Amino acid sequence: MSLLIVDRILAVSFSILCALLIVAGHDMRGGAGVMPVSIAVLGLITSLILIAQKKPSIADEEMHHPINWRRFLLWCSLSVITIAAIQDIGSFIAIPSFLFFSFYLLGKIEVKKSIFISLIFTAFIYFTFVQLLEVPLPNGILSDWLDI
Q1: Which one of 11, 17, 48, 120 is separated from 90 by 20 to 30 angstroms, measured CA to CA?
Q2: Distance between CA atoms of 107 and 100, rounded to whole angstroms?
Q3: How many CB atoms are located within 10 Å of the residue 47 CB?
Q4: What is this structure's pTM?
Q5: Which residues contact residue 33 at a Cβ distance below 8 angstroms, ignoring those fewer than 6 apart?
Q6: Which keywords does the record carry (predicted)?
Q7: Are residue 29 and residue 97 in the same domain, yes or no?
Q8: pLDDT for the residue 76
């Protein structure tokens, strides 16, 4: 299957998901649906652009690379382990650990950059959800040290 077909399938799937999110956001009370609807509208616009976009003919003639199933299954296992353990170990350990190991497994990124990106993203999650939106995140084993 060419990348053009994969892109179109994903774009159609994502646009359906965004349309459902827009409908669900309109059913929310008060101003609770503004953010989900805004994000869904942006996602719908980008996926429609991806659907309409014409790719060069090279996409149809591209070489097919075999899927590295070992790496894919390792990453899926890592995702499941992270989701299962986030309550016990806490978000502030699970998120950067997941990101670090994902970068290590999927990308060819330096260890220092991987650690830096993982910590910056976790700090962004912390300040956005805990400080700004006041949404509690699972502290796990750090609950004694974190007064959140």
Answers
A1: 17
A2: 10
A3: 22
A4: 0.57
A5: 24, 25, 26, 27
A6: Membrane, Transmembrane, Transmembrane helix
A7: no
A8: 87
Please state the domain count of the chain.
2
pLDDT in tens, 89-136: 888 889 899 999 888 888 778 889 989 999 999 899 888 888 888 877
Give the domain extent around 110. 67-147
Q: How far is CA 110 from CA 40, 93, 96, 117, 122, in A?
A: 34, 20, 15, 11, 18
4 shares its domain with 47: yes
C-alpha angle 78-80-83 in degrees, rounded to nearest 5: 110
42/73 same-domain check:
no
Report residue 107 as tokens.
């990308």
Q: Read off the amino acid at residue 36.
A: P
User: Which residue's entry shows tokens 């700004």?
Assistant: 132
